[in-house]
């Protein structure tokens, strides 16, 4: 078996390479143990360097933690902002933004675990709440345009933006550990609630507009079939009703409501 090269013969890392190595190691340890649970000694040992090297690059674990948080903060914010810009229809914008967050959680779980922790007071970095506020400000502009287009008062856009972002973020925190169902299905259900509301939920939500159209057509045919069946039953009941029977009482609220999708 080939013996490992002596330390003196190993390729030395450049300052930039060493910095990136320490950031990656710190990211993993902070996600697992948090800032307070991680020591400079552990970071240095995992990197195969002495403690002074960590201090040289970051001034200590707080400095390293601050850079890790800032990087993850900017990455997630950029992903969601790009998703909002990419969509053409407003529902599609919401779908892409929800999916972007879930993709980040799935592919950068360590980064998300760090972000959802309260930032350490001594780091000077933003908290998860401030990140959500930044994202909400992006959503606010999208909602304001949609509200204006429909004649709604756009002064409520900031409040609705906070509601939407909070819903998606909390769902993401839950999904971080359960990982079921798949992210596309989770995004479809989130948008189903956000777009349609509880009273108009789609039975089979999907991110595919063609499948959504087919589902709407299926439901339309089903409602037409149910209405025709009910009308047939009413005609039969009228035929079978004795001539001297009293007329049926009207429904107290008009026509009884059918299933709403």
UniProtKB/TrEMBL annotation:
Q: What is the lineage of its organism?
A: Bacteria, Bacillati, Actinomycetota, Actinomycetes, Streptosporangiales
Under which name does UniProt file this protein? AcrR family transcriptional regulator
The UniProt entry's GO biological process terms, in alphabetical order, are: negative regulation of DNA-templated transcription
**InterPro entries in the record, alphabetically?**
DNA-bd_HTH_TetR-type_CS (IPR023772), Homeodomain-like_sf (IPR009057), HTH-type_TetR-like_transc_reg (IPR050109), HTH_TetR (IPR001647), Tet_transcr_reg_TetR-rel_C_sf (IPR036271), TetR_C_32 (IPR045823)
Compositionally biased intervals (Basic residues): 210-222
Q: Name the UniProt key words of this record, in alphabetical order.
A: DNA-binding, Transcription, Transcription regulation
The family database entries (Pfam families) matched by this protein are listed as: TetR_C_32 (PF19344), TetR_N (PF00440)
Q: Per the UniProt entry, what species is this protein from, by scientific name?
A: Thermomonospora cellulosilytica
DNA-binding region(s), chain positions: 39-58
Gene Ontology MF annotations:
DNA-binding transcription factor activity; transcription cis-regulatory region binding
**What range(s) does the HTH tetR-type domain occupy?**
16-76
Could you tell me where the Basic and acidic residues compositional bias lies?
Answer: 223-242
Q: Where is this region: Disordered?
A: 201-261
